[in-house]
Amino acid sequence: MTRFINRVLIWVMALAALLVLALPMRLITTVEGQGADPRNTKPNTNPKNISPPRKPNAMPSSRPQNPNIELVKIIPPGSFAMGSTSGDEDEKPVHRVMINYTFYIGRYEVTQGQWQAVMGTNPSDFKNCGNNCPVDMVSWDEAKSFIRKLNQLNDGYHYRLPTEAEWEYACRAGTTGDYAGELEEMAWFQDNAGVRPHPVGSKRPNAWGLSDMYGNLYEWCEDWYHETYYGAPADGSAWSGGNENVRVRRGGSWRYPTSMLRSADRNAEVPWLHDRDTGFRVAAVARTK
Predict the structure, then answer these.
(1) Nearest to 269 by CA among 258, 279, 284
(2) In the chain, where the domains are located
(3) Cis peptide before 199 (omega within 30 of 0)
(4) CB atoms within 10 A of CB 247
(5) In the chain, pLDDT over 70 holds for what percent of residues?
(6) Is 48 helix (H, G, I), strand (E, B) or coil?
(7) Residue 26: CA count within 13 A, CB half-sphere
(8) 87, burial (CB in 10 Å: exposed 0-12, middle 13-18, buried 19+)
């Protein structure tokens, strides 16, 4: 009888020891597993072996960084024949434009890296092209937002989109034909681009040092589109009125043939267009104050 009682006591003590050992294992599982025990309403302020939560990604700064846009100064006075006698109807009539003021224009199209510095994002479809590729998928409205932020820098310039007359004047660089040089050397277009844009400045610039005026990406201008040049300003200013549903794009892109890269060729699109072949370059004037 005594032997039986001793055996029972041994079994009870062994069972109690097992319960004591199992208890901490149960507590660790509720903290480190998929979730804490819902019955435990008291927060654990010092859980074991758990890394602190990651901080959320920082929001883009509201103040833009300096994107280091390189400008070329166009020296006045300058006069040129805008349009083409052999082109489309919206390139006629050819008319004389006098640029009698100093303005600057970007040596390159605005790049993805520059857009990122100012806007804190990168909308481009061709992100794998790199920071030195032109920013694409930018609407006219968004280009204007970029410029507003750029002007917050107060760096001595007042930035804007080029007018259509300024754009063609800068593109021609003193020439009068369809192109300002050998297109294969100056432009990325349908025949040589490989269905994508390329880093800015990787082709030869025109005589005024401006790269990618032909091809790579279409570039937004300030003007509303008009179906002809009848009544167009002769002083280089932006043309208001007209078809107030569409804005002007210039220069052609990697997507199109040489006929759409001519100095005088014009294209019209709605200002909210997002297209993988559309970007912009900035114009600027020196601040007076």
Answers:
(1) 279
(2) 1-35, 71-286
(3) no
(4) 25
(5) 78
(6) coil
(7) 8
(8) middle
Longest dimension (CA), the chain: 125
Backbone phi and psi for residue 66, each to the nearest 5 degrees, phi listed first: -70, 120
pLDDT over threshold 50, residue 77? yes
Top-level class of domain 71-286: alpha beta
pLDDT tens profile 158-172? 999 999 999 999 999
Residue 80 host element (H or E): strand 78-82
Which DSSP helix (H) or strand (E) runs through 72? strand 71-74
Encoding tokens for residue 173?
């660089």
**Distance, CA of 85 to CA of 2 (rounded, Å):** 123
Distance CA 247, CA 282 (A): 16
Structure tokens at 169: 């004047």
Q: What is the distance between the terminal CA atoms of the chain, rounded to a whole angstrom?
A: 110
Q: Note if the bond before 271 is cis, omega within 30 degrees.
A: no
How many whole angstroms separate alpha carbon 90 and alpha carbon 97?
Answer: 16
Instruction: State both tokens at 113.
Output: 């890296």
Quick check: 253 and 217 in contact, CB under 8 A? Answer: yes
Q: pLDDT: is 283 or 40 the higher one? A: 283
Residues 122-133: b if buried by 16+ CB within 10 A, e if exposed? ebbebeebeeeb
d(CA 274, CA 119): 16
Distance CA 164, CA 80 (A): 13
Amino acid letter, residue 102: T
Is the predicted pLDDT of residue 234 greater than 60, yes or no?
Answer: yes
